[in-house]
Specification:
Blueprint lengths: L10 H4 L7 H6 L21 H11 L12 H10 L4 H30 L1 H9 L4 H36 L12 H27 L3 H5 L3
Membrane topology: Multi-pass membrane protein
Subcellular location: Cell membrane
Protein name: Membrane protein
């Protein structure tokens, strides 16, 4: 017969499977007779997954048919890695993106400070201290990176649930977790500081007379 999944988020993947009675299949199979590739265990409490996996693996420890029990998401990740190292690919792409981001934002901040040298000199003439000017440039750098980061994270929060819903269960993550948000905020702050520190130091060391004279 044909079966339909009640959970439509995984239907696209699950409904492509062909299932048959294992006993009938085993009787007609001479190559791997009486063998099973994997068992699926449903837990009442997902928090017990690690303990249950260890207990299952202990049953066949030191035998010629040891098992390796893992969660469904871990199994899917291992299956995908057979085709490509997704983690390495994503890490390489992100490294290139961060390097490009540093170059672009660093150049933007340096250009912004160069264009506003007369304005910064005027602020110092009005009594603004060097550390105040330094802080203004650093805040601008942090805001530039922060706004871009928040827009990116906001788009990710909207796109990930839509992609996960159409992945057929291959992408279990439905939302952007809190840990990812915290890492993102940390990266925003770190990149903002790295990008803004040199232009801010230049603004701090600016001489009023030289700046107003255009030197």
């Amino acid at each position: 017969g044909i079966f339909r999944m009640k959970d439509r988020t995984v239907a696209a993947n699950q409904e492509r499977q062909l299932m048959m009675n294992w006993k009938y299949f085993d009787e007609s199979n001479d190559y791997i007779k009486s063998r099973v590739s994997w068992y699926t265990v449903t837990l009442r409490n997902a928090d017990q997954a690690s303990r249950v996996a260890q207990a299952i693996d202990a049953l066949s420890a030191n035998s010629d048919h040891e098992t390796k029990s893992q969660t469904e998401s871990a199994f899917q990740q291992a299956f995908v890695k057979q085709f490509a190292d997704i983690g390495l690919i994503v890490t390489s792409i992100m490294a290139a993106v961060f390097f490009t981001l540093l170059l672009l934002t660093g150049n933007t901040m340096a250009q912004a400070v160069r264009e506003r040298i007369p304005e910064l000199a005027t602020l110092k003439t009005l009594g603004f201290q060097d550390r105040t000017v330094l802080s203004l440039v650093m805040v601008e750098s942090m805001l530039l990176i922060g706004l871009g980061g928040l827009i990116g994270m906001g788009l990710a929060a909207l796109v990930i649930p839509a992609v996960a819903a159409r992945s057929g269960g291959l992408m279990p993550t439905q939302t952007v977790p809190l840990q990812t948000w915290l890492v993102a905020f940390g990266l925003m702050a770190g990149i903002g500081i790295v990008v803004g520190v040199l232009p801010a130091l230049r603004a701090q060391r600016l001489k009023i007379v030289d700046a107003l004279a255009g030197r």
